[in-house]
Amino acid sequence: MSSSRTRILALFLLVLPALSAAQTKGIVTFGGLKNLEFINQFYDGGQGSLGSGPGPNFGLQFTANAQAIVSASRGGSGNFINNPGGYPVMFFQTGSTVTMTATNGVQNAVLFYYSALQTGSATIYSGPNGTGTILASVTLPTNNSGCNTYKLCVWSAVGIPLSAAAGSISFAGVPDYLAIGAVHLGAALPTSMVLASSQNPSVQGEPVTFTATVTAIGAAPVGNVTFKARNKVVGVVPIVGGAATITVSSLKTGSTNIVAKFQGTGFANVTRSLVQVVN
Protein backbone atom coordinates (compact mmCIF):
# COMPACT_ATOMS: atom_id res chain seq x y z
CA MET A 1 0.00 0.00 0.00
CA SER A 2 2.80 2.42 0.88
CA SER A 3 4.53 1.70 -2.42
CA SER A 4 1.28 2.34 -4.33
CA ARG A 5 0.81 5.68 -2.57
CA THR A 6 4.36 6.67 -3.45
CA ARG A 7 3.76 5.91 -7.12
CA ILE A 8 0.50 7.90 -7.12
CA LEU A 9 2.20 10.89 -5.48
CA ALA A 10 5.07 10.75 -7.96
CA LEU A 11 2.60 10.66 -10.87
CA PHE A 12 0.75 13.68 -9.46
CA LEU A 13 3.97 15.66 -9.15
CA LEU A 14 4.84 14.84 -12.75
CA VAL A 15 1.43 15.97 -14.05
CA LEU A 16 1.21 19.18 -12.00
CA PRO A 17 3.69 21.29 -14.05
CA ALA A 18 1.78 20.52 -17.25
CA LEU A 19 -1.44 21.77 -15.64
CA SER A 20 0.18 25.07 -14.63
CA ALA A 21 1.80 25.72 -18.02
CA ALA A 22 0.65 28.54 -20.33
CA GLN A 23 -0.75 30.60 -17.49
CA THR A 24 1.07 33.95 -17.82
CA LYS A 25 -1.36 36.71 -16.90
CA GLY A 26 -0.77 40.35 -16.09
CA ILE A 27 -0.30 43.85 -17.46
CA VAL A 28 3.17 44.93 -18.49
CA THR A 29 3.08 48.71 -17.92
CA PHE A 30 6.87 49.31 -17.87
CA GLY A 31 6.21 51.30 -14.71
CA GLY A 32 9.15 51.38 -12.30
CA LEU A 33 11.74 51.48 -15.06
CA LYS A 34 13.89 54.57 -15.56
CA ASN A 35 14.40 56.68 -18.63
CA LEU A 36 16.43 54.77 -21.27
CA GLU A 37 16.80 51.77 -18.97
CA PHE A 38 17.18 48.40 -20.66
CA ILE A 39 14.40 46.12 -19.40
CA ASN A 40 16.65 43.05 -18.99
CA GLN A 41 15.23 40.78 -16.24
CA PHE A 42 12.85 43.34 -14.72
CA TYR A 43 9.82 41.12 -15.44
CA ASP A 44 11.62 37.87 -14.73
CA GLY A 45 12.52 38.21 -11.08
CA GLY A 46 15.52 40.46 -11.70
CA GLN A 47 16.37 44.07 -12.43
CA GLY A 48 16.65 46.54 -15.27
CA SER A 49 20.04 47.78 -16.47
CA LEU A 50 19.95 50.78 -14.10
CA GLY A 51 19.04 48.73 -11.04
CA SER A 52 15.27 49.15 -11.10
CA GLY A 53 13.20 46.27 -9.83
CA PRO A 54 12.50 43.60 -9.54
CA GLY A 55 9.18 44.24 -11.21
CA PRO A 56 6.25 41.81 -11.28
CA ASN A 57 7.69 38.36 -11.92
CA PHE A 58 5.72 37.35 -15.01
CA GLY A 59 8.43 35.07 -16.34
CA LEU A 60 9.06 37.42 -19.25
CA GLN A 61 12.36 37.75 -21.06
CA PHE A 62 13.19 40.61 -23.43
CA THR A 63 15.80 40.89 -26.14
CA ALA A 64 18.85 42.94 -25.12
CA ASN A 65 17.76 45.98 -27.15
CA ALA A 66 14.42 46.45 -25.34
CA GLN A 67 14.42 49.77 -23.47
CA ALA A 68 12.01 51.84 -21.43
CA ILE A 69 11.65 55.55 -22.04
CA VAL A 70 9.87 58.22 -20.00
CA SER A 71 7.97 61.08 -21.64
CA ALA A 72 9.72 64.45 -21.69
CA SER A 73 6.54 65.79 -20.09
CA ARG A 74 7.47 63.71 -17.03
CA GLY A 75 11.18 64.51 -16.97
CA GLY A 76 12.41 61.91 -19.41
CA SER A 77 13.61 62.18 -22.99
CA GLY A 78 10.68 60.58 -24.81
CA ASN A 79 9.02 62.56 -27.58
CA PHE A 80 5.53 61.27 -26.71
CA ILE A 81 2.45 62.04 -24.63
CA ASN A 82 -1.00 60.58 -23.86
CA ASN A 83 0.42 57.09 -23.37
CA PRO A 84 -1.88 54.72 -21.43
CA GLY A 85 -1.59 55.32 -17.71
CA GLY A 86 1.25 57.81 -18.14
CA TYR A 87 3.82 55.06 -17.66
CA PRO A 88 7.11 54.70 -19.54
CA VAL A 89 6.82 52.88 -22.85
CA MET A 90 9.02 50.33 -24.60
CA PHE A 91 11.09 51.14 -27.67
CA PHE A 92 14.35 50.14 -29.32
CA GLN A 93 17.23 52.18 -30.68
CA THR A 94 19.07 49.34 -32.43
CA GLY A 95 18.01 46.45 -34.60
CA SER A 96 14.70 46.08 -36.41
CA THR A 97 12.75 44.06 -33.84
CA VAL A 98 12.28 43.71 -30.11
CA THR A 99 10.98 40.40 -28.77
CA MET A 100 9.26 39.47 -25.52
CA THR A 101 9.25 35.79 -24.54
CA ALA A 102 6.77 34.36 -22.05
CA THR A 103 8.49 31.35 -20.52
CA ASN A 104 5.15 29.96 -19.26
CA GLY A 105 3.24 30.82 -22.43
CA VAL A 106 0.18 33.03 -22.86
CA GLN A 107 -3.38 31.90 -23.47
CA ASN A 108 -6.65 33.65 -24.41
CA ALA A 109 -5.38 36.90 -25.92
CA VAL A 110 -2.78 39.65 -26.10
CA LEU A 111 -3.79 43.32 -26.00
CA PHE A 112 -1.31 46.16 -26.40
CA TYR A 113 -1.14 49.84 -27.29
CA TYR A 114 1.26 51.35 -29.79
CA SER A 115 2.25 54.65 -31.37
CA ALA A 116 4.16 54.77 -34.67
CA LEU A 117 5.70 57.38 -36.94
CA GLN A 118 6.49 54.70 -39.51
CA THR A 119 4.68 51.43 -40.20
CA GLY A 120 5.63 48.47 -38.03
CA SER A 121 4.26 45.02 -37.23
CA ALA A 122 3.60 42.60 -34.40
CA THR A 123 4.00 38.84 -34.79
CA ILE A 124 3.04 36.21 -32.23
CA TYR A 125 4.87 32.87 -32.24
CA SER A 126 4.18 29.56 -30.55
CA GLY A 127 7.80 29.23 -29.40
CA PRO A 128 10.29 31.42 -27.52
CA ASN A 129 12.38 34.19 -29.08
CA GLY A 130 10.33 34.47 -32.26
CA THR A 131 10.43 30.77 -33.14
CA GLY A 132 7.87 28.10 -33.91
CA THR A 133 4.55 28.54 -35.64
CA ILE A 134 3.26 32.04 -36.39
CA LEU A 135 -0.06 32.30 -34.58
CA ALA A 136 -0.86 35.84 -35.70
CA SER A 137 0.73 38.77 -37.49
CA VAL A 138 -0.68 42.28 -37.67
CA THR A 139 0.47 45.49 -39.32
CA LEU A 140 0.89 48.56 -37.12
CA PRO A 141 0.11 51.50 -39.42
CA THR A 142 1.34 55.03 -38.78
CA ASN A 143 -1.26 56.48 -36.45
CA ASN A 144 -0.15 59.96 -35.41
CA SER A 145 -1.87 63.12 -36.56
CA GLY A 146 -2.61 66.45 -34.97
CA CYS A 147 0.42 66.20 -32.68
CA ASN A 148 2.10 69.46 -31.72
CA THR A 149 4.80 69.58 -29.03
CA TYR A 150 5.24 65.79 -28.97
CA LYS A 151 5.48 63.80 -32.20
CA LEU A 152 3.79 60.67 -30.78
CA CYS A 153 0.46 61.60 -29.25
CA VAL A 154 -1.95 58.92 -30.55
CA TRP A 155 -2.06 55.40 -29.10
CA SER A 156 -3.98 52.61 -30.82
CA ALA A 157 -5.20 49.41 -29.18
CA VAL A 158 -4.44 46.09 -30.87
CA GLY A 159 -6.16 42.97 -29.60
CA ILE A 160 -5.09 39.51 -30.78
CA PRO A 161 -7.20 36.51 -29.72
CA LEU A 162 -5.24 33.29 -29.38
CA SER A 163 -6.39 29.85 -30.52
CA ALA A 164 -3.23 28.26 -29.06
CA ALA A 165 -0.69 29.13 -26.38
CA ALA A 166 1.79 31.82 -27.45
CA GLY A 167 5.46 31.69 -26.57
CA SER A 168 6.67 35.10 -27.75
CA ILE A 169 5.72 38.31 -29.50
CA SER A 170 8.01 40.34 -31.75
CA PHE A 171 7.50 44.02 -32.53
CA ALA A 172 9.19 45.16 -35.73
CA GLY A 173 9.72 48.63 -37.11
CA VAL A 174 12.14 51.47 -37.59
CA PRO A 175 14.29 52.19 -34.49
CA ASP A 176 13.04 55.21 -32.51
CA TYR A 177 9.83 55.34 -34.61
CA LEU A 178 7.76 52.68 -32.82
CA ALA A 179 6.68 52.76 -29.17
CA ILE A 180 4.78 50.07 -27.29
CA GLY A 181 2.58 51.03 -24.36
CA ALA A 182 0.88 48.73 -21.86
CA VAL A 183 0.75 45.04 -22.85
CA HIS A 184 -2.07 42.91 -21.41
CA LEU A 185 -1.27 39.19 -21.34
CA GLY A 186 -3.61 36.26 -20.86
CA ALA A 187 -6.92 38.05 -20.34
CA ALA A 188 -9.83 37.76 -22.76
CA LEU A 189 -10.32 40.89 -24.85
CA PRO A 190 -12.85 43.30 -23.27
CA THR A 191 -16.10 42.91 -25.20
CA SER A 192 -19.45 44.71 -25.20
CA MET A 193 -22.79 44.09 -26.88
CA VAL A 194 -26.00 45.96 -27.65
CA LEU A 195 -29.23 44.03 -28.23
CA ALA A 196 -32.05 45.66 -30.21
CA SER A 197 -35.49 44.71 -31.54
CA SER A 198 -36.77 45.76 -34.99
CA GLN A 199 -40.14 46.63 -33.45
CA ASN A 200 -41.21 46.66 -29.87
CA PRO A 201 -44.08 46.20 -29.17
CA SER A 202 -45.08 43.86 -31.98
CA VAL A 203 -48.20 41.97 -33.03
CA GLN A 204 -48.58 38.21 -32.56
CA GLY A 205 -47.45 36.31 -35.64
CA GLU A 206 -45.50 39.29 -36.95
CA PRO A 207 -41.79 38.61 -37.58
CA VAL A 208 -39.43 40.45 -35.25
CA THR A 209 -35.72 40.76 -35.95
CA PHE A 210 -33.31 40.88 -33.03
CA THR A 211 -29.83 42.28 -33.65
CA ALA A 212 -26.85 41.81 -31.34
CA THR A 213 -24.07 44.28 -32.16
CA VAL A 214 -20.74 43.20 -30.66
CA THR A 215 -17.57 45.25 -30.27
CA ALA A 216 -14.22 44.50 -28.64
CA ILE A 217 -11.20 46.60 -27.74
CA GLY A 218 -8.54 46.38 -30.43
CA ALA A 219 -10.10 43.65 -32.55
CA ALA A 220 -13.14 42.69 -34.63
CA PRO A 221 -15.13 40.11 -32.64
CA VAL A 222 -15.28 36.55 -33.99
CA GLY A 223 -17.71 34.07 -32.50
CA ASN A 224 -21.39 33.19 -32.14
CA VAL A 225 -24.41 34.71 -30.45
CA THR A 226 -26.93 32.37 -28.84
CA PHE A 227 -30.44 33.82 -28.78
CA LYS A 228 -33.01 32.65 -26.25
CA ALA A 229 -36.71 33.43 -25.84
CA ARG A 230 -38.38 32.43 -22.57
CA ASN A 231 -35.13 30.62 -21.72
CA LYS A 232 -35.33 28.41 -24.83
CA VAL A 233 -32.71 28.60 -27.58
CA VAL A 234 -34.18 29.95 -30.81
CA GLY A 235 -30.91 30.15 -32.73
CA VAL A 236 -27.11 30.29 -32.70
CA VAL A 237 -25.83 32.89 -35.17
CA PRO A 238 -22.22 33.73 -36.15
CA ILE A 239 -21.00 37.33 -35.97
CA VAL A 240 -20.78 38.92 -39.42
CA GLY A 241 -19.61 42.49 -39.76
CA GLY A 242 -19.82 42.98 -36.01
CA ALA A 243 -23.42 41.82 -35.66
CA ALA A 244 -25.64 38.74 -35.44
CA THR A 245 -29.34 38.85 -36.33
CA ILE A 246 -32.25 36.46 -36.02
CA THR A 247 -35.90 36.80 -37.02
CA VAL A 248 -38.61 35.20 -34.86
CA SER A 249 -42.34 35.13 -35.66
CA SER A 250 -43.56 32.62 -33.07
CA LEU A 251 -43.54 34.79 -29.96
CA LYS A 252 -46.56 34.45 -27.73
CA THR A 253 -48.65 37.38 -26.57
CA GLY A 254 -47.44 39.15 -23.47
CA SER A 255 -43.91 39.98 -22.36
CA THR A 256 -41.05 37.73 -23.43
CA ASN A 257 -37.50 37.97 -22.13
CA ILE A 258 -35.07 37.83 -25.05
CA VAL A 259 -31.48 36.95 -24.12
CA ALA A 260 -28.40 37.10 -26.36
CA LYS A 261 -25.06 35.64 -25.28
CA PHE A 262 -21.85 36.17 -27.24
CA GLN A 263 -18.99 33.66 -27.05
CA GLY A 264 -15.76 33.72 -29.00
CA THR A 265 -12.24 32.36 -28.50
CA GLY A 266 -10.07 35.03 -26.92
CA PHE A 267 -13.01 37.38 -26.30
CA ALA A 268 -14.86 37.96 -23.04
CA ASN A 269 -18.31 36.38 -22.91
CA VAL A 270 -21.08 38.95 -22.71
CA THR A 271 -24.84 38.66 -22.23
CA ARG A 272 -27.60 41.20 -22.88
CA SER A 273 -31.38 40.98 -22.66
CA LEU A 274 -34.52 42.90 -23.46
CA VAL A 275 -38.25 42.48 -22.90
CA GLN A 276 -40.25 42.04 -26.09
CA VAL A 277 -43.93 42.96 -25.79
CA VAL A 278 -46.30 41.12 -28.13
CA ASN A 279 -49.89 42.34 -28.52
Sum this structure up briefly.
By secondary structure, the chain is mainly β. The protein has one helix at 2-20; strands at 26-28, 60-62, 67-69, 89-91, 97-106, 109-116, 120-125, 134-140, 156-161, 166-172, 178-185, 191-197, 208-216, 224-229, 232-238, 243-248, 254-264, 267-278.
Low-confidence stretches: 1-22
Distance from N terminus to C terminus (CA atoms, Å) equals 71 Å
How does the overall form come out from the CA principal axes? elongated
**Which structural class matches the secondary elements?**
mainly beta
Extended strand count:
18
Tell me the major beta sheet: 5 strands, antiparallel
The neighbouring-strand order within the major sheet is: 2-5-10-7-8
**Number of distinct helices:** 1
N to C succession of SSEs: HEEEEEEEEEEEEEEEEEE
Work out the radius of gyration. Answer: 24 Å
The percent of residues in helical segments reads: under 10%
Classify the oligomer: single chain
Q: For the residues shown, what is the average pLDDT?
A: 92
- State which percent range the strand residues make up: 35-45%
